[in-house]
């Protein structure tokens, strides 16, 4: 297949590497608004050429929209409009567009009534790192991870099958759910992790103004906990905004648990602290 990737950062670039290396893509075209990133993507060899959105959507069999969700809401209807133009002369359009965004409900709602809605498959490959840009792209990023496919009943069955084959090429396992459930679940397992990491980083940075040894003493535990605070604001601001209602509920629950620890520590309640820790240890059943 000829595949176009819009956004040549960590996700788009990593997909490009493995789709070409594993034989799913014959030719890769890239669209990148940042000229430095575009030049880097060509130099690294992530894509065969850099082109425009119109040319990419007009010439490729599949479009992968790997941009922040705020940009995706604008670009997705434009891509479907380009698909629709191909049908004006009576020919059928078999092109497919997918996204890789971390929130789904608002994005799907944006194109719900579009005539070419069935050519869009909403996906979320659950993989990533705290790094961004084409330099962050790596082979094998998606191996063994889950990929969520949302509202597949609204997409063409043939399009869904092709997308499933693509993610199978990336060694991902599919999970199917509706957009609303997706956004709730990602608020709990992904978005709150980033918020707590940002908050911890801010806490330590604030204290570090007076205590220079904090970072000298930082251990592996601190580094792994605060790692996500390196993540790009351009990606996470629209995610937090679009998943606002779910995130507020999760944040309220998180604050409740923090306050439970604070109360037990303040009262020298070692039994209460032990109970909270042992309750938290149950996570070992889920994450090994």
Short description:
With 288 residues, this protein is an alpha/beta fold. It is built from eleven helices and eight strands.
Explain how this protein is built.
51% of the residues lie in helices and 12% in strands. The protein is an alpha/beta fold and 288 residues long. The chain has 2 domains: 2-178, NAD(P)-binding Rossmann-like Domain (Rossmann fold), CATH 3.40.50.720; 182-285, Orthogonal Bundle (6-phosphogluconate dehydrogenase C-terminal fold), CATH 1.10.3660. It has an 8-stranded mixed beta sheet with strand order 3-2-1-4-5-6-7-8, with helices on both faces. Helix 3 packs across helix 4. The radius of gyration is 21 Å and the shape is elongated.
Number of domains: 2
CATH architecture of the largest domain: 3-Layer(aba) Sandwich
| Quaternary status | single chain
What's the overall geometry? elongated
Task: Please give the alpha-carbon distance between the first and last residues.
Answer: 38 Å
CATH class of the largest domain: Alpha Beta
Pick out the low-confidence regions.
Answer: none
Radius of gyration: 21 Å
Count of alpha/pi helices:
11
Q: What structural class do the secondary elements suggest?
A: alpha/beta
Pattern of helices and strands:
EHEHEHEHEHEEHEHHHHH
Task: Count the beta strands.
Answer: 8
The CATH homologous superfamily of the largest domain is termed NAD(P)-binding Rossmann-like Domain
Helix content: 40-55%
Estimate what percentage of residues fall within beta strands: 5-15%
Tell me the CATH topology of the largest domain.
Rossmann fold
